[in-house]
Amino acid sequence: MRGKRILVFAAIALLLTGQFSPACGQDVKGLIRSIDEQQRKIETITALFVQKKETSLVKMPLLSSGLVRFKRPDLIHWNYAEPEPMEVAISGKGIWIYHPGSLQAEKYYLGRNKRMTQSLEPLLAIFQKTFHQLSDDYAIIYGGLETEHIHHFSLHPRDEKVRKFLSRVDLWIDKTSGAIIRFKMVEANGDRLNLEFKNLQINPPLTDDDLKIKIPPSVRVWEQSTP
User: Fold this and answer.
1) Which residue of 47, 89, 98, 109 is 20 to 30 Å from 145, comparing CA positions?
2) Residue partners of 77: CB distance under 8 A and separation at least 6
3) Of 26-30, 123-127, 140-144, 174-178, where does mean pLDDT reach its minimum?
4) pLDDT tens figures, 121-171
5) How far is CA 103 from CA 79, 109, 142, 218, 221, in A?
6) pTM of the predicted model, to two decimals?
């Protein structure tokens, strides 16, 4: 169970941003403004996701997949189907984890758990913040168009404390919608996390309850707030 939780926390971890570096003569600042305008129009998202975690702890990549839903300002729900059913819900400063059918769920307070907060903050940022909001903390390097419709960016942390655990983040952004369709996180120790979103739906009707885990009353919720 501990190993699974570590994978979940790693899967829910990723980026932020700082300087703008041009590529191919592109007006990167103008491009960032354009993407920000597109992203401000996104209130809700649903998408299938495929996750691959590469770590020195195991020889083969750890693969998982499922459905993710997002609703502004800070609700995210991950419904894992493979390799085993699991739900992860993030709301404000808390994260809930539940394996359907089990007798126990877990709740963590992010503000009180420094290590978890550190790993989760980058991923939360890509859902909740625009490039402009991220740009104070990370250098943004534009890699150009990978296809006609996909922008590629690399994000490099400027803060020395962040660089101790995060080397860089690569983002692939849809040119038409501004939505992130793929990202790759490279940790300082060489571990890699890849997430790819498919069948992306923008602004489907979602309520707050749609992004909550329906935990049965008989299930005990174990609360963890260790720093």
Assistant:
1) 47
2) 68, 69, 70, 87, 88, 89, 90, 210, 211, 212, 213
3) 123-127
4) 666 666 667 777 777 778 888 999 888 889 999 989 888 888 888 899 899
5) 18, 21, 47, 7, 9
6) 0.80
Would you mind telling me the total number of residues written for the chain in this entry?
227
Pairing mode, if any, of strands 20-21 and 62-71? unpaired
Q: Give the start-to-end residue ranges of the domains of the chain.
A: 2-224
3-state secondary structure the chain: CHHHHHHHHHHCCCCCCCCEECCCCCCHHHHHHHHHHHHHCCCEEEEEEEEEEECCCCCCCEEEEEEEEEECCCEEEEEEEECCCEEEEEECCEEEEECCCCCEEEEEEHHHCHHHHHHHHHHHHHHHCCHHHHCCCEEEEEEEEEECCEEEEEEEECCHHHHCCEEEEEEEEECCCCCEEEEEEEECCCCEEEEEEEEEEECCCCCHHHHCCCCCCCCEEEEECCC
Q: What backbone torsions phi and psi does residue 218 show, to the nearest 5 degrees?
A: -75, -10
The pLDDT value recorded for residue 65 is 97
What are the structure tokens assigned to 190, written together?
């060489």
Q: Pick from 38, 51, 67: which is nearest to 206 by CA?
A: 67
What contacts 81, CB < 8 A, 6 or more positions away? 65, 66, 67
Least confident of 41-45, 51-55, 132-136, 215-219: 132-136
